Hints:
Chain A is about 40% helix and about 15% strand. Chain A has helices at about 5-20, 45-50, 65-70, 90-105, 120-140, 165-170, and strands at about 35, 40-45, 75-80, 110-115, 150-155, 175-180. In chain A, strand 4, helix 5 (about 120-140) and strand 5 (about 150-155) form a beta-alpha-beta unit. Helix content of chain B is about 10%, strand content about 40%. Chain B contains four helices and 30 strands. The chains are: A alpha+beta, B mainly beta.
Amino acid sequence: MTILSRKTLGMFLAATVLLAGCGSSVKLDDKAAPVESRTGSAVGPGGGAGAAGSSQSQVTSVDLTKSASDATLAKTIYFDFDSFVVKDEFKPIIEQYAKMLTADRKKRLVIEGHTDERGGREYNLALGQKRAESVQRALVLLGVTESQVEPVSFGEERPAAQGSDESAWAKNRRAELIQK
Amino acid sequence: MRAELFRPTRLSFTMPHRRTILVAAAGGLSLPALGQFRVEISGVGATQIPVAVARFRDEAAAPQPVGAIVRADLERSGLIRPIDAPGDLDERSQPSMSEWRGRGADALVAGSVMRLADGRFDVRYKLWDVVKGADLGGQAYAVTAPDLRLAAHRIADAVYEKLTGEKGVFSTRICYVSKAANRYTLRVTDADGEGGQVALTSPEPIISPAWSPSGREIAYVSFESGKAVVWVQEVASGARKPIANFRGSNSAPAWSPDGQQLAVTLSREGGSQLHLMGRDGNNLRRLTQSSAIDTEPAFAPDGKSIFFVSDRGGSPQIYRMPLAGGAAERVTFNGSYNISPAVSPDGRLLAYINRSGNAFRVSTLDLATGAVQTLTDTSDDESPSFAPNGRLLIYATRAQGRDVLMTTTLDGKIKTRLLSSGADVREPVWGPFGR
Lengths: 180, 435
């Protein structure tokens, strides 16, 4: 089977499914039938089968269910003290984002690195940057293009939790993944 | 001048005549809220010159208590111990030197504040050396009301210089970041923490302010665009522009001594690395090539080398590298965490923050001898910055549950607290001479 006729067959099958859903039965065969185009000029026999991919019946599918699942992607990866290693428990998140970003190369991601409040502001800004870049590296290893991802840092300036105890600090040592 | 031993004193404006001054001054003001200022001094210096500072004639009728400002300035220097000066004195008086010697004064300052017909003020002072019984002269200033504080500071500078031989820093300014609720402000105040004006208000964090050597501009990091970007802003006009806005984070601006270049920390090529750029953001050149964190640059005053923080050895320490090229050498060796370098104006001393246990403390390192000194016993210090005469450091710390700004003498013995507002204050930097 040539690609051409496979495509044509596929279109007819799709058309059959759609028409079956409409409740009317139309017998389809693979002989091209005259089709009235929108401009009113009739297309002769062989016109449909001869024009690969430019049939007036073409419908290109847009699947919003994929975007909806983007919203359910977890957005935060947490880190141990003084560490920028992405722990195993967060690998599934990395994999989900990698899948999304490799499927659509136009998609962009900003990774914000954060630290807890202990230590100097500029040094913590740099530590947060390391965390963001660590997440970026993990994504790139799974095929994401580096330019799709911008790692930035807020250091200790944007805590998620107020407080000066380990439970607050643990919530602040994080990287946030933000779709742009 | 006589040297005396003193008991430690804790001073605040609760003494009768001072309270009167404050109330009278506040009565005539339409200045923004924080009219109360408090000089809290802890510790005692070995040698302090006792100086009587009289209330300036008619200062209660002026918008600023000039004599009280002069007295507080001299007190904060740590080298001068103010003595009460009751009575009606001004610059034309003929005080009895023996009377003032009897009161324990080595010097006496008196003056007046007079409103001129055009709305300005004529401020005059005179200084007497009580020990020698000599008139050391004085000065007259004609200033607008907004510059009355500056006139008082200039008098304090002149008195300080005549008595100690050193340049005073009372006319200089400081800059710091204040945070309240979800608002950050960059503030410029006199060196005493008063006369505050807001340079920038933002809903996003502002960090790492840095005065240009001319004092006309401040560089800082703003997160207004969602990430760290370095801006330069003209203080007088508010005109501002971003000068480092590369991919990733841009931070830690430091001006070269000639004001023509800035060192910054950029992550545009991955990691945090030092770069040099012209004051307009042009001519970008990378300075460090490590796989570590290199940040917090600070120029040596001769402009030939740069101090910075690096964790290339495993934990953050302070290094120095020549700008002409060459290896960086480590300069801090005590403890495993040393950050935030500040170089003294004569290039001999490094101030920085050392972490010991859980305590972050202002420390100094003598670059020639290697001698290290810890200056505080608080545990949350940050951002040490030298006064331009090299005699004082300003820093931020936490005391009694509040974030405060402090100054300290280099031996750590005399400390004063600036600003009694309730806001969260951090990252002070001391501006240059030249206002």
